[in-house]
Amino acid sequence: MAEPATDEVQAERELAVSGLTESGQTPTEPGYPEIAGEADEPEDPELSGEDEEDEEEELDPAAAARRTAALAHVRKFGDPVLRTRARPVDRFDDTLRDEVRRMGELMNDAMGVGLAATQVGVLHRLLIYRVQQRAPVAALINPEIEWSGKQQEILEEGCLSLPAVHVDVERPIDVRVRAQNEFGEEIVIEASGLEARVIQHEVDHLDGVLILDRISRQQRKEAMRALREAQSESRH
Ligand code: ZN
């Protein structure tokens, strides 16, 4: 694992939180498994007591308002742009760098760990992520997963575009990604664990693929129910 375990835990908590964005306002649906896997978490002091309610309480009103405002800019399930394949970027100019900067701010405010351009309605093969709190936001442009390890693992994922949905997704643990940065320079990233997972999740977005496409039919039915509840709640 490239990053220290504590960062991993911290970031994983954020990943879960990123998928739980609206659920604080959504009554828990009976029968919907509350954050599957949460009970299986190791007894790590870092994690103890940090469930979604605590997270909501800790959030000061200004941060909560920023998060709500940011989430309003994120395209949600049902928007056709989320099902559209993004186009390669060939112009590495200030406009692109501005887009990267704006997406970074949005991701920070929304408390996500990754964001694909399609999620903000821009059909560019561009994703950003940050899995360690103090690390700078990384931008991958025209990313290609050129190698994936054989070993896979199942971890829970959320998505800013799918309020209240959190599902277990199986993915390769290790990947090697070739991409360009916002200046057009070639970069190769060897990622494992959470970083690899976030990159794969966001590359999926650039291909119009959602986590709903990577789970069983039964899981999808439950996820769709949670999503519908959250969406009807947010309309009231
Ligand atoms: Zn997503």
Task: Characterise the protein shown here.
- By secondary structure, the protein is an alpha+beta fold.
- The chain has one domain: Alpha-Beta Complex (Peptide Deformylase), CATH 3.90.45.10.
- Helix content is 35%, strand content 19%.
- The protein contains six helices and seven strands, in the order H-H-H-H-E-E-E-E-E-E-E-H-H.
- A five-stranded antiparallel beta sheet has the order 1-2-3-6-7. Strands 4-5 form a two-stranded antiparallel sheet.
- Helix 3 crosses helix 4.
- The radius of gyration is 17 Å and the shape is globular.
- The termini are far apart.
- The N terminus is likely disordered.
- The structure holds zinc ion (ZN).
- Zinc ion (ZN) binds next to helix 5.
List the defining traits of the structure above.
236 residues; alpha+beta; Peptide Deformylase; five-stranded antiparallel β-sheet; two-stranded antiparallel ribbon; 6 helices; disordered N terminus; binds zinc ion
How are the elements arranged and paired?
Elements: H1 5-19, H2 52-58, H3 61-71, H4 94-110, E1 114-116, E2 126-129, E3 138-148, E4 152-158, E5 166-172, E6 174-180, E7 186-192, H5 193-206, H6 217-235
Antiparallel strand pairs: 1-2, 2-3, 3-6, 4-5, 6-7
The structure holds zinc ion.
